[in-house]
Amino acid sequence: MADKMSDRELADTIKVINKAASSNEPASTMLTLMQPLKRAAPPSEDLLRSTKAGIVIGKLRSHANSDVKRLANEIVGKWKKHVEAEKARRQKGPGGSPMVKERSSSATAQGASPAPSSSSSAPFTGDPLLRKFENDNANINRTNDTARNNCIGLMYNGLAYRSQEPVENIVLKAVEIEKAAYDAYKLDSKRYKIKLRSLFQNLKHKNNVELGQKIMSGEISAERFVIMDSQELKSADLKKLEEDYEAENMKKAQVPMAEKSISDALTCGKCKQKKVSYSQAQTRSADEPMTTFCECTVCGNRWKFS
């Protein structure tokens, strides 16, 4: 029989695996770190939740390396079977007869909301590229306003795309984001809807996978997310690409430089003289202002602005 990991051992193992995945460690390292999870007895559902083990290992099922992907699927599959078996045992009475209906009837009589099904709290196992609240059978009707519920659905679709997070986790995060946007823009319903559509498009952007991950992990709070501007929403890779593009255009613009004009409206920040020559060039995209290159004819100081 497989040995059971202690709570501390599991938590430490998951932290190390998560850090290795974030640092793009080689597949051989990932496989070595994951092997103890395969050999150990499955942990309880509560422990999987508290350590975020299901989330961390679940993400590795989309790893670029096929061996890492296969091992992650094996581990998650083993955990899922164990959790479902635990729930089945709890749902039976002392004599082995099911008690689900009795509890369900009692909850309904008291007007309580039904608890999420086991499938809604388990890691997603389908195609993450096809995820939508309709396909996931997610309940997005969390307010008394149809328009707001539709916006919750929109946020769910953006967060679920390319994600293997459980359905209920994504629903709760979508509700949190919609509520933050409603609080921030409730006096302007047009801005509220435009902002949520913009956030959805950024979540779905093919080069911005990390945005949804940061939202789900809590690295970016819902309150912060709904007020981020277009520059802040861009991925690090896209920002780097734009910086490289600007630098390349700047080099092209400077060699050769266009014929310079002399202006007395510009002041040199170094010698304070107003004998400044300047030229202009388009160094960024066409919808951005031109960059002005300045050179003081007195002290030779150079600077630029746009």
UniProtKB/TrEMBL annotation:
BP term (GO), one: regulation of mRNA 3'-end processing
PROSITE patterns tied to this protein: TFIIS_CENTRAL, TFIIS_N, ZF_TFIIS_1, ZF_TFIIS_2
SUPFAM superfamilies reported for this sequence: Conserved domain common to transcription factors TFIIS, elongin A, CRSP70 (SSF47676), Elongation factor TFIIS domain 2 (SSF46942), Zinc beta-ribbon (SSF57783)
Biased composition (Low complexity): 105-123
Main location: nucleus
Protein name as it appears in the record: Transcription elongation factor
Pfam families hit by this protein: Med26, TFIIS_M, Zn_ribbon_TFIIS
Family: Belongs to the TFS-II family.
Sample GO molecular function, one term: RNA polymerase II complex recruiting activity
InterPro entries, per the entry: TF_IIS-typ, TFIIS/CRSP70_N_sub, TFIIS/LEDGF_dom_sf, TFIIS_cen_dom, TFIIS_cen_dom_sf, TFIIS_N, TFSII, Znf_TFIIS
Ranges of residues in domain TFIIS N-terminal: 12-86
Species this chain originates from: Thyridium curvatum
Protein function: Necessary for efficient RNA polymerase II transcription elongation past template-encoded arresting sites.
TFIIS-type domain segment(s): 264-304
Keywords: DNA-binding, Metal-binding, Nucleus, Transcription, Transcription regulation, Zinc, Zinc-finger
Compartments, as annotated in UniProt: Nucleus
Listed CDD domains: Zn-ribbon_TFIIS (cd13749)
Keyword NAD: no
Annotated coiled-coil segments of the chain: none
PANTHER family named in the record: IP08861P-RELATED, TRANSCRIPTION FACTOR S-II ZINC FINGER DOMAIN-CONTAINING PROTEIN
Renumbered residue ranges of the record's region Disordered: 83-130
